[in-house]
Design a protein that fits this description.
It is elongated, with a radius of gyration of 27 Å. With 150 residues, it is mainly alpha-helical.
């Protein structure tokens, strides 16, 4: 039985589809690796910045002032602002939650009182968060070593 030109074409098409799928798989794998690398960079930069923000030198004080003044402008979501509010306040800055609260109150007063706000079930306390993410094995470890540089 002889092969027709169409049989060869089908085989070639199948091989091309397999090669294309393999290239797509490799691209996805590279993207995942890149995303992991970028996330690790962000974590390490954040850890470094956290250490600088707790320092006492003149250079660190300059960075602390810059951070306290400019970081609140970088944050756009209320939950993010709430997350960093105490840190920015401890550095002498203002996160701007009071302004948002007054704007929100103005907007609420303009709306009809009949409208009922939906409850936000994401209002967790610090204790709730600690309980969700606590790990007895990790909690038993020695306190953080400030001299460690990862």
């Amino acid at each position: 039985m002889s092969e027709s030109i169409f049989d060869n074409q089908e085989i070639n098409d199948l091989k091309e589809r397999q090669q294309l799928e393999e290239l797509k798989r490799k691209a996805r794998l590279k993207k995942v690796k890149l995303d992991k690398r970028v996330n690790k960079q962000k974590i390490l930069m954040g850890a470094f910045l956290g250490q600088v923000l707790s320092g006492e030198s003149e250079e660190e004080k300059f960075i602390q002032n810059y951070f306290a003044k400019n970081f609140p402008k970088f944050l756009t979501r209320k939950l993010d602002k709430e997350l960093f509010a105490s840190m920015v306040k401890s550095l002498g800055g203002d996160i701007g939650l009071d302004e948002e609260a007054s704007k929100a109150n103005d907007q609420l007063s303009e709306k009809e009182e009949e409208q009922v706000e939906q409850p936000d079930d994401t209002d967790y306390t610090d204790d709730d968060i600690r309980e969700l993410f606590s790990d007895p094995q990790i909690d038993a470890l020695a306190p953080h070593d400030n001299g460690y540089r990862g």
